[in-house]
Amino acid sequence: MADGLRKAAVWLGLVSDDDYSEVDPQADDVTEQVPAPRELARPGTTPDAPATVTELESRRPVRDQPRVADINRIITVHPRTYNEARTIGENFREGVPVIMNVSDMDEADAKRLVDFSAGLIFGLRGSIERITSKVFLLSPHNVSVTAEDKERLAGGFFNQS
After folding, report:
1. Most Cβ neighbours (<10 Å): which of 19, 117, 130, 135?
2. Who contacts 144 (Cβ-Cβ below 8 Å, separation ≥6)?
3. What is the DSSP string of 50-81?
4. CA of residue 66 relative to chain centroid, distance
5. What are the pLDDT digits (tens) for 53-78?
């Protein structure tokens, strides 16, 4: 029993293990020789050849210049449930500005859809603008909606008599 407690104490590091103090560090140990790094080089390559480096600038996609949106290509969506978020995402991903009118939704789903849109905007580097309290304009990164178009859009929403 005492031997078991001693082994547990040694294993936990509470006491020193005297058995290893008798081992001679100069004793002949059987070890395996590890090859030098040059010996590990792949066949057919020279070990001193520099690695191929690709500049980051050549791998980055070229940014499109912002283009003015054609007012005929702006999609208006009146979602009633959160399930219609896919339509908004697919159109926005294709580079089409989306007007999202969440006035027909309950507050919880409307907030959820606006959060989805904010993530969509962040992920695809677009922009989001509030037209009215429940209407939002989602613009892709390569599309800029002019002030005249915004006035027409806002006029369309306010002039509903």
Report:
1. 117
2. 66, 67, 68, 69
3. PPP---HHHHSPPPPPPEEPPGGG-EEE--SS
4. 23
5. 777 665 556 555 555 555 567 889 99
